[in-house]
Write a structure and sequence with these properties.
By secondary structure, the chain is of the alpha+beta class. 32% of the residues lie in helices and 29% in strands. Helix 6 runs antiparallel to helix 7.
Length: 345
């Protein structure tokens, strides 16, 4: 009977001693984070609160404080970190890690600590930043990247036509860039440089189709007294003409055929050179009307017409109009439509 009592007392003492030892051992581990605990991918096992805070700051917050760059070809756009106002709730995440480490009963924690069993607990340190700053930056990149397409066109000279090639434009894929930026800032991982992507924007008039815009074209070389007709941007025919004399020059610039008439009336300008005829209307097809056969109006009373004064062709002799031999003006009249461009140089 006495031996049984002694045995019971011994067991009780042993258990009490073990509990005390377990409690003491558990208490010694209280200031450290348990094995298998990570914060935003940073393994903080065995670290103190201060050590874990420093480690997470170095791995999570510090990289976020570097600027973000967006590259497009040779252009670089920079978003300074200070504009993002990046914050991370590291202290709270470390507090949670400490709480996770103390989860379970005393025996469970002691067994876990002695055996090295891992908790397998992953905690996220929430990172916040200015979304409006991201949106402003994307708009800034778009302004620098976006390019309108250039339609193919024609550059005319007094006796030449040159096709200016079309150019593709491009538009920033702004939604994609916004997603890339937010993903980078949310995760805090990866390079801080992003390559901007664009969508190609085609021109409305391509180099191949520009000739369709100009089935006919006229160029006037005043210095050489030649009028050239171009069809599908290829030289088709050249005529010898007369142009405006000094002081009454044929106007230079890019115009178009505004109207066409057969045997036009002559509305005599109210000018000194018109003499007694000034302000009168001379019917078309009459001997006193110098506008012979055909008329193609260009600009402000100036136009192309036929003349009986063929000796004036090849010189600056008119009062601003372009004179042609009657057969030539009839030929040209049938080849061009209203709206045909004419470049005078």
């Amino acid at each position: 009977m006495r031996k049984t009592q002694i045995l019971i007392i011994a067991v009780v003492i042993f258990l009490i001693g073990g509990a005390v030892a377990a409690y003491a051992y558990d208490g010694s581990q209280k200031g450290e984070i348990a094995q298998g605990v990570s914060i935003s991918g940073v393994d903080v096992s065995g670290m103190t609160h201060e050590e874990a805070s420093q480690a997470v700051t170095a791995r999570v917050l510090s990289p976020q404080r570097r600027p973000v760059k967006v590259m497009f070809r040779d252009e670089k756009f920079v978003l300074p970190a200070k504009e993002l106002r990046i914050r991370a709730d590291i202290e709270r995440s470390v507090d949670r890690a400490m709480e996770e480490s103390r989860s379970g009963t005393l025996p469970e924690r002691v067994i876990r600590q002695i055996t090295g069993e891992k908790l397998d607990s992953s905690i996220t340190a929430e990172v916040t930043y200015s979304r409006p700053a991201v949106n402003r930056f994307v708009r800034e990149v778009a302004e620098g990247v976006n390019k309108e397409p250039v339609d193919a066109s024609v550059a005319a000279g007094p006796a030449s036509l040159t096709v200016i090639k079309a150019e593709n434009g491009h538009k920033l894929r702004d939604n994609l860039l916004t997603g890339q930026l937010t993903s980078l800032l949310d995760q805090g991982k990866g390079g801080r440089t992003i390559k901007a992507r664009v969508t190609v924007v085609k021109p409305a008039v391509t180099t191949r189709t520009v000739a369709d815009q100009y089935p006919t074209y006229l160029t006037l070389d005043r210095s050489n007294y030649t009028l050239s007709l171009w069809r599908d941007l290829e030289l088709e025919k050249t005529y010898t003409v007369a142009v405006g004399q000094v002081g009454l020059e044929t106007p230079a610039g890019l115009y178009s055929i505004q109207d066409k008439q057969v045997d036009p009336n002559w509305y005599v300008p109210d000018s000194d050179w018109a003499g007694d005829l000034a302000g009168q209307v001379i019917p078309g097809g009459t001997a006193g009307n110098p506008l012979k056969a055909r008329w193609m109006g260009i600009y402000n009373g100036a136009g192309i017409h036929g003349t009986d004064d063929t000796g004036s062709l090849g010189s600056a002799a008119s009062h601003g109009c372009v004179r042609m031999a009657v057969p030539d003006v009839i030929d040209l009249y049938d080849r061009v439509d209203v709206g045909t461009p004419i470049y005078i140089g």
